[in-house]
Amino acid sequence: MKILHADDHQIFRDSLKLLFDFEEDIEVIGEASNGTQVMEALKTLQPDIILMDVSMNGMGGVETSRLVKQKYPQIKILILSMNSEREHILGALEAGVDGYLLKSAGKNEVLRAIRTVFEGSSYYSKVVTDEIVNQLNQLHQPKKIKTGEALSAREIEILSLIAKQFSSTEIAKQLFISVRTVDAHRRNMLEKLGLKNAAGLVKYAIEHGLI
Length: 211
Description:
Mean pLDDT: 87
CATH architecture of the largest domain: 3-Layer(aba) Sandwich
Number of helices: 10
Strand content: 5-15%
Structural class: alpha/beta
Distance between the termini: 44 Å
CATH class of the largest domain: Alpha Beta
Largest sheet: 6 strands, parallel
Order of helices and strands: EHEHEHEHEHEHHHHH
Low-confidence stretches: 143-148
Radius of gyration: 25 Å
């Protein structure tokens, strides 16, 4: 596995290179201290994996990862950073990196992460996977209604079912209420939200993350 290591701390690059010298299947073929140097190195080098820090002087790891994935999509990128801030983690994931590992990881985990990414799978440390789960949970939570008159919890519940194409009868059975009550809630929601019909309710539910 041919590695290009990008980190703005020389001593860290030297330490990892020494570690990799004991591994027969890993070879460091180049080093860089920032993103600009990475892009320059890729003009002549063909690494399998770029081991990259997020925070580097000049062009950082997120921006560099995005450029690499655009120009060299076959190259795997494994972030190895001290930075566990949500902004950097999500930015790196959106850039298309193949793994995100913290520098607090031990030798065995670093080697396991490199080999996992090389084989075509993703590798994320526990801190990163926890952040991913939190983000997904937030995406699936109903967003707060930003209208002058907020919908009630029951109305939101009914609206989400309407958006999933449940009929009034089906909604009534699922929520153990009468069809008349469902229709009353439907009329109230149309009035509150200034909408004309069920199609408007469905569109509203989608836009506000209710389904």
